[in-house]
Amino acid sequence: MIRFLLDGEVVEVDGDDPQATALDLIRYRLRRTGTKEGCAEGDCGACTVLLGELDGEGVRWRAVNACILFVPMLDGKALLTVESLTTDGALHPVQREMVDRHGSQCGFCTPGFIMSLYGRSIGALGSDGKLADTLAGNLCRCTGYGPILAAGEAVPIVPRGDEATVAALKALALAQGHGDGWFAPRTADELAALLVAHPGARIVAGATDVGLWVTKQHRELGTMIFIGDVADLRTMTEDTEGLTIGAGIRYSEAHAALGRLHPDLGELVRRIGGLQVRNAGTIGGNIANGSPIGDMPPALIALGATVTLRQGDARRTMPLEAFFVRYGVQDRQPDEFVESMYVPRPPAGALVRIAKLSKRFDSDIAAVCGAFMLTVADGHVTQARIAFGGMAGTPARALGAEAALTGKPWSEATVEAAAIALGSDYAPLDDLRGSAAYRRIVAANLLRRLWIEQATGEPVSVLALADG
Fold first, then answer.
1. Alpha-carbon distance 451 to 456, whole Å?
2. CA proximity to 116, closest of 355, 335, 300, 276
């Protein structure tokens, strides 16, 4: 049995189908039809709801996409839908501002915008940046966004009074599993034991990718183990040497700390999906998934990150680049899981540049993601780490380009030789995000841009450069 709070009241639903989505539950069983299905892949934001979890003596709210959230992931949490905002027929200030400023036309996307704006108005996770960033995961085809942004700016930020919600959440007993197909461990020890007992079980963290396997591919996922409530994996430690990130840490939770390692790293996180995706997706899940176009691995590889895997009581740590073997294959055994990542702080004075190229600036998958970390002393490159995503079947280092730089003068001629060497480091494919030729050109131009910007102190467009 799955138990959660809806507007402060306990709701109990069976967990016989762990692949059922929260959106279907909300619309068809709870009959809250304000929450809409627009894309069923976490891209448009029409299904945005707020999910609340205990955070000490308070509640941490976050906007998420209900369309790719599995019903068992609601267990022990608090849920708010657009219907939650209206009290005795009176509109919430967010709703009133949207009406008064004509922020809605056809109205289909409006409930999702309302919930994202409401999340911002109560200081929900990840909504403390620019308003446009908060709304980047919500799409509208009618209003041109201006009235919606104006409505959001007009609403003050006032934290909720959640004393009653805290008490109710504390009283909810979390279940360890929901039927034969879903397990929800609370500790890393329990997770390790479950994987030994169920080798090959599907590990689910934020479901930002796995959810699409259900909604778009209609796959049967078999036994699933949810790690979102494993306290041991939801820790993050920052010191002068670097950052240790538990595999269950969400992007929104790590955003500020990663930005402190380097501003480009923070900017990269800002462009990973919409806020709803960053509020659900985990860095560990992105790594374990092994996508060749995942945004974070190239950046973490360039910074010298390591990953720690656990199997039962045994652990092993390896350079992150060694984890990716080939397309769809990682160096992980069936009963092994990613426990944490460690990202060293870049050396003082290191040249670091991380760039993502995509068709859309916001909420889009990269065609190419390039990351560079160089150290230069006495006019010579003493160390070079370069990694790309979207250029091969895995995120991978550019070993030839690194060799062409290391020990050489930091000069235009050296950089040009390294840019040429990139052509031998990768054999990219043609796909809908870009041709192989495009990828080769922009990868080389990213390196050239690093040199030019360092030499001139002026920003340069990658596509404005010649292909050499």
1. 9
2. 276
